[in-house]
Amino acid sequence: MEARGLVKRYGQVTAINGADFELRPGEILAVIGDNGAGKSSMIKALSGAVVPDEGQIFLDGQLVSFRSPIDARRQGIETVYQDLAVAPAMTIAENLFLGREILKAGPIAKLLRIVDKKKMHEEAVRHMQGLQFAIKSMSQPVETLSGGQRQGVAVARSAAFARHVVIMDEPTAALGVREGNMVLDLIRKVRDGGLPVILISHNMPHVFEIADRIHVHRMGQRAALLNPKQISMADTVSVMTGALKPDQLSAEMLAH
Ligand SMILES: Nc1ncnc2c1ncn2[C@@H]1O[C@H](COP(=O)(O)OP(=O)(O)OP(=O)(O)O)[C@@H](O)[C@H]1O
């Protein structure tokens, strides 16, 4: 996924100020930036939640434009939001297929929208096993799971339906250490399964643990693309706050 020169203004405020973006196949790209840097606005433009005033978005080299999140979803982009976006009273299997239920075969079943619970259950088991997600039963209501497991269900759902990109907005923010690590593992599995991941996070240790490249956002733009294997966390934070300019960094610290 690529974007060139994205702009979004809210009255006097320019939330996205000519931002470029690039996500490569098979990578986890972390997006970091101070509060108000415009990360969410850019991510919303990439996921159809905001229509940019200017700029272009490309998927596999093709120009695309999203009028809504549903539009972006149809084109293979799934987003996991930080606020544990699952339906607590429904089972894991039902949550995985929420809004995309598999209907039973035949015209009457289709007309009456009779869902094929057995098939959904089987598919859910297959998919969760593929992600090595340890759950006793897919018929368990999501409210009986821990916070980390719930977020795991949201991640698994996005991975099941995304064809191009999975976007995760602070997926570990509400979680404890062990649960956060579990979600990080799951994100790695999503990448290793072939889907590139955009991870918006304020959690530097998580970013450094998992990201292949780091997009630093500052004042509505991409300030730098960093190589987490070559730059320290302290220098990364300095780039984020503007204390360190990208041209003061060595070539290896920059990602290409
Ligand atoms: N719907 C809106 N209406 C008006 N101003 C907005 C709107 N959304 C964002 N902004 C403004 O745009 C700027 C960028 O906000 P944005 O939420 O994109 O930043 P952020 O980097 O995601 O911040 P945070 O890390 O705090 O979530 C801010 O000044 C914000 O007040």
From TrEMBL:
<feature type="domain" description="ABC transporter">
    <location>
        <begin position="1"/>
        <end position="244"/>
    </location>
</feature>
<dbReference type="GO" id="GO:0005524">
    <property type="term" value="F:ATP binding"/>
</dbReference>
<keyword id="KW-0067">ATP-binding</keyword>
<dbReference type="InterPro" id="IPR050107">
    <property type="entry name" value="ABC_carbohydrate_import_ATPase"/>
</dbReference>
<dbReference type="Pfam" id="PF00005">
    <property type="entry name" value="ABC_tran"/>
</dbReference>
<dbReference type="InterPro" id="IPR027417">
    <property type="entry name" value="P-loop_NTPase"/>
</dbReference>
<protein>
    <submittedName>
        <fullName>ATP-binding cassette domain-containing protein</fullName>
    </submittedName>
</protein>
<dbReference type="InterPro" id="IPR003439">
    <property type="entry name" value="ABC_transporter-like_ATP-bd"/>
</dbReference>
<keyword id="KW-0547">Nucleotide-binding</keyword>
<dbReference type="InterPro" id="IPR003593">
    <property type="entry name" value="AAA+_ATPase"/>
</dbReference>
